[in-house]
Please model this.
Amino acid sequence: MARATPQRAPLTIRARRLAKVYRVGVETIHALRSVDLDISPNEWVAIMGSSGSGKSTLMNVLGCLDRPTSGEYLLDGRAVSAMSARQLAQVRNKLIGFVFQSFELLPRMSALANVELPLVYAGGGSWWGSRRRRARAALERVGLGHRLTHRPNQLSGGQKQRVAIARAILNEPAILMADEPTGNLDSTTTAEILDLFGQLHDEGQTIILVTHEDEVAARCGRVVRLRDGNVLSDLSVSEDAAGHRSALRGEGGPDRWQAAASATAHEGGSASGAAGERSGRC
Amino acid sequence: MLNPLFYIQAIALALGQIWANKTRSLLTMLGIIIGVASVTAVIAALVGLRTRVLSEFEGFGASKIFIFPSRPEGSARNVYPFERIRLRPEELTAISEQAASVRSITPVATLGLDVRSDRAQLDGVTITGIWPDWHDVERRAVILGRPFNAIDEENARQVCLVNDRAILELQLEADPVGRYLLIGGRRFLIVGVVETLTLTIVPSTNTAEIFIPFSVAVKLLPRDFFMSFSARIGSPELADEAKAEITALMRRMRGLEPDEPDTFRVAAIDQFISQFKALAAGITAIAGGIVGISLLVGGIGIMNIMLVSVSERTREIGLRKAVGATPAAILIQFLLEAITLCAVGGLIGVAIGQAFAFGLTKIPGAQLDQAEVPLWAIAMAFAFSGLVGIVFGMFPAIKASQLDPIEALRHE
Model:
């Protein structure tokens, strides 16, 4: 086990009864109904679920792009659910690094300038020299030390995603949030990017990864499955894989899987207690 | 709160945007460019004209005062017949003797007469009756011969002065002093040649001029002839004092009651200067109005293009927000972009205006060779362009800053 007493370590994410309700015209959409989630430092969590399950909404709320309608969310010990747009922006800048499916690099800027972007909004006096140095270090960390001045259109898909990852880890965020980071990549590149995530995880990075690919989830330590805005299951990757496979095969497995899922759902409050058994690393 | 480099980067980014969309940016800036170029050129022309006018007026005599008959404004001709308002020789004498601020004074009484020389005959030449002091008042010395003196005046001697043009038209020899002219059938001895001064700002053609003593002119003129007085004062600063003194003296001479209006006018050169200044201010105001309209149109263009830019770059805005851009940072970025667009337009406008101003100086006969764009005009043009950027860039910038990051990132 990596950590003997993970429940004593300060939680990176502590969410209680998170709910998000959208009103589209007269219709009310419960994107999140009641989600409890604890994530400890250096965990690598996959969030899975079919479309409409609420995984994007959960990602947005956890990434402080959106505020929950109700519920409590502590990020790195900070109550972010009541923050203003400006404070949320600063939280995103300092505590969260985003990686998107479509990279979201600014086309007219070099890789270096793209990676620097968070520092532009970081405030305080960081000057060209230190900014450049940090951006270069981040690019070297993702193995792109030789592509500093290339523009996005001169880079391959995998390289673009590496630039995006370098940008995300620049401010040493508490969480690296990746939304389908391999969705636009072929299998070889996917493996490379997942190796990179693995490397960052080994270096101590907490990672939340939204995906619908089992192969991607298999690389993570823990898999959270959502359905209809609720947590369906929250298991270590080995348990999840077993349950999921047997559920697919329709053998006796479903009971165990369902049981585990319902246990998590019912005892949401004790999720931190279960964290110990779950935090097994892959 | 924001890193100072943020501003530099935002401006660099804005310049990059302009460069990446050259045609679009240029078309957008056209309104600003035209506005700034036209105001720059108009101001340059006015500055040139003003410099020219002021220097000429000053050279010509800022310490000159004119007195001429004037019917009170709005009064009927029969209430103030010419006989009541015309200047009289005794008024001239009174001013000459009693007005302490007046250094020298001369009547100017003109009549048109036929003139004959040995070789040529001219009809209707302007003959001006003057006092010897005229040389001092008008600052016109003689080139050849001698000026008029008191004896000419007192004895009403039949002598005359001519200018270069009269020499030419009457086909006199280069030095006509000692020759005779037949003016209105009388023989006049040419005693001198006076130099010709012309105001280049007033397009005047140099005409033949002949001057005779005032005492002689009076005999040739009708009984109720028209004349004006020209006086020279010690210095231009005394103009107001001199005007007041002469006005009081004239009113006393004419026995005007305090509630009666002046039946004459006393004007100094500075009055013409202030009239010119008022005219220049009027032209500036009209030009300002035109510029205001083109800046308004330009501003609407800027607003339009900024809205397009915000909608084109919605994903970029979303990303910037995701990596920590506050609404204020996005607002400032887009505002700076609008201001940069306007400032670049202003810069091009000033450059074109400068080129216009330079072109003005090269127009022959336009008297605008001193046209130049003053620094304050450049500063003002920039300030206004920037202001247009702020005013018309504000709405798109607010729109950008209020975008929801999630929506923005999902935008296609």
Notes: DSSP finds 14 helices and ten strands in chain B. The beta strands of chain B are 64-69, 102-116, 121-130, 142-145, 159-162, 180-183, 186-194, 209-213, 228-233, 264-268. Chain B has a mean pLDDT of 86.
